[in-house]
């Protein structure tokens, strides 16, 4: 991938950009094998990757500069700004939106927030695109509601210029810290969710609900989990840290009992909407803490799928799973280091198979899917 920002030394977010993708994958596999050296793996599957550029469905832009000449991109540690609207990780469909937003910021009087002075209103712009129909969600992260009326008044012209902006909202983040968003979300359009679809499974994207940023690889990740589960005799499944339900909804069948747990209410609303669209009646999604939910149950499902944040599932949930001993655990991880730590706290399980998914090309990061089988359990097909 060619990047003028990288070549000019203005952005180093893609720290592996100069390495061929094959070399990147080899380095990631070597890292993963080293991390899992204490947990023997029966079957290593070939890593899966996707496009090298234009793959991101989401842009998180720090807004800086002046109201007349805003910059959309990032702030370096020294406080200087870099405009990233030309970043090749974004699809071409983002460019006209970025171009229209800069003069719109001036028309709406949305003064960019100045970190040093602690003044201004507009902190971030968050743009997300659905691969299903190209519709987009735009979120304005503001310091307060002071400019909300001006924003509302200016929106009709922006929507006329960019009809693909189907979902627009304002997020209020009053804290002077590098926090992406606050708790308060104010819808500015009748539609509050984007429709998406992976592998024929309807999914929804709402503000404040996590959704994978590399849809091509994410779709293959979900499809792989479904393939693995279909090879097992699963009648009851837990999907912990389920987000919008991507894993559970891919794996569920009409006869399977599925329980999905996620702490974010907006994500659970998405998952319930998808389950209803699929006609699944033995499914329940609840907005709860996954560890607290699991450790409070006395039943043992056949399979527990966990997809935790970077911190992993932790010792408490590991101890519970080891005690309750479901026949299978599928572990999806965005941080193989914490996953390796968790595996060491799951005695009584063997690692049947592992596969790496290159969700973040040109960086050291990657996703992993691992199937754990309880000792004494028959091998998975």
TrEMBL record:
GO molecular function, one term: iron ion binding
Catalytic activity reported: uridine(747) in 23S rRNA + S-adenosyl-L-methionine = 5-methyluridine(747) in 23S rRNA + S-adenosyl-L-homocysteine + H(+)
Binding residues annotated for [4Fe-4S] cluster, in chain numbering: 3, 11, 14, 87
UniProt keywords, alphabetically: 4Fe-4S, Iron, Iron-sulfur, Metal-binding, Methyltransferase, rRNA processing, S-adenosyl-L-methionine, Transferase
Binding residues annotated for S-adenosyl-L-methionine, in chain numbering: 212, 241, 262, 307
Domain of life: Bacteria
Uppermost EC category: transferase
The enzyme's E.C. designation: 2.1.1.189
Active site: 334 (nucleophile), 334
Gene Ontology biological process: rRNA base methylation
Stated family: Belongs to the class I-like SAM-binding methyltransferase superfamily. RNA M5U methyltransferase family. RlmC subfamily.
Function field: Catalyzes the formation of 5-methyl-uridine at position 747 (m5U747) in 23S rRNA.
Protein's name in the database: 23S rRNA (uracil(747)-C(5))-methyltransferase RlmC
Native source species: Shimwellia blattae (strain ATCC 29907 / DSM 4481 / JCM 1650 / NBRC 105725 / CDC 9005-74) (Escherichia blattae)
């Amino acid at each position: 991938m060619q990047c003028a920002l990288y070549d000019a030394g203005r952005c180093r977010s893609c720290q592996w950009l100069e390495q061929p993708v094959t070399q990147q994958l080899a380095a990631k596999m070597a890292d993963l094998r080293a991390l899992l050296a204490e947990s023997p793996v029966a079957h290593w599957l070939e890593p899966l990757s996707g496009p090298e550029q234009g793959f991101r469905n989401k842009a998180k832009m720090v807004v800086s500069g002046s109201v007349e000449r805003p910059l959309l991109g990032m702030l370096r540690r020294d406080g200087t700004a870099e405009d990233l609207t030309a970043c090749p990780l974004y699809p071409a469909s983002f460019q006209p939106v970025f171009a229209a937003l800069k003069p719109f910021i001036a028309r709406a009087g949305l003064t960019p927030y100045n970190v040093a002075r602690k003044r201004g209103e507009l902190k971030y712009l968050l743009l997300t695109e659905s691969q299903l129909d190209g519709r987009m969600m735009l979120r304005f992260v503001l310091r307060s509601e002071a400019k909300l009326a001006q924003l509302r008044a200016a929106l009709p012209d922006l929507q006329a210029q960019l009809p693909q902006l189907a979902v627009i909202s304002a997020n209020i983040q009053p804290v002077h810290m590098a926090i992406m968003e606050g708790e308060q979300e104010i819808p500015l359009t009748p539609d509050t969710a984007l429709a998406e679809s992976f592998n024929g499974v309807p999914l929804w994207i709402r503000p404040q609900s996590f959704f994978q940023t590399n849809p091509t690889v994410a779709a293959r990740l979900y499809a792989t989990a479904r393939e693995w589960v279909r090879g097992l005799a699963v009648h009851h499944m837990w999907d912990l840290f389920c987000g919008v339900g991507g894993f559970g909804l891919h794996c569920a069948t009409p006869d399977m009992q599925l329980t999905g747990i996620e702490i974010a209410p907006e994500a659970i609303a998405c998952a319930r909407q998808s389950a209803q669209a699929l006609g699944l009646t033995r499914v329940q999604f609840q907005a709860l803490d996954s560890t607290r939910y699991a450790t409070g149950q006395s039943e043992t499902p056949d399979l527990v799928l966990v997809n935790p944040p970077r911190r992993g599932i932790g010792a408490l949930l590991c101890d519970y799973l080891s005690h309750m001993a479901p026949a299978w655990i599928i572990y999806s991880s965005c941080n193989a280091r914490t996953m390796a730590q968790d595996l060491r706290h799951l005695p009584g399980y063997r690692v049947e198979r592992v596969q790496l998914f290159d969700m973040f090309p040109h960086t050291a990061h990657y996703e992993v899917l691992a199937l754990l089988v309880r000792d004494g359990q028959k091998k998975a097909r």
